[in-house]
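agent> step 3/5: call structure_predict on target 'Inhibitor of the pro-sigma K processing machinery' (Terribacillus saccharophilus).
agent> reason: downstream docking stage needs a structural representation; sequence fetched in step 2, passing through unchanged.
tool.input:
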Amino acid sequence: MSYAIIGILLAAVVVLLISGTSGKLFSLMLKGSVRLILGVFLLFLFNVVGALAGLHIPINAATTVLVGVLGIPGIASLAAIQYFLL
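tool.output (status=ok):
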């Protein structure tokens, strides 16, 4: 499944480059991709450290986008939800 997602993203980049879209759109896509990768990395680090306290946040599309957009406050909100509600 992950190969399909990577293939779709690469195809989208190739289509955008061939069609001659503005650099702004490509820059926006690059920023979004970097934020998502950073979100996955932060969730992974939290899960490694949070294992000591018994906290675990699943790494999926929703949590990755939330952490990618909000950053550290996103992790804090997910940890609070995990600790207090679940």
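agent> step 4/5: record observation. Residues 2-84 form one domain.
agent> proceeding.
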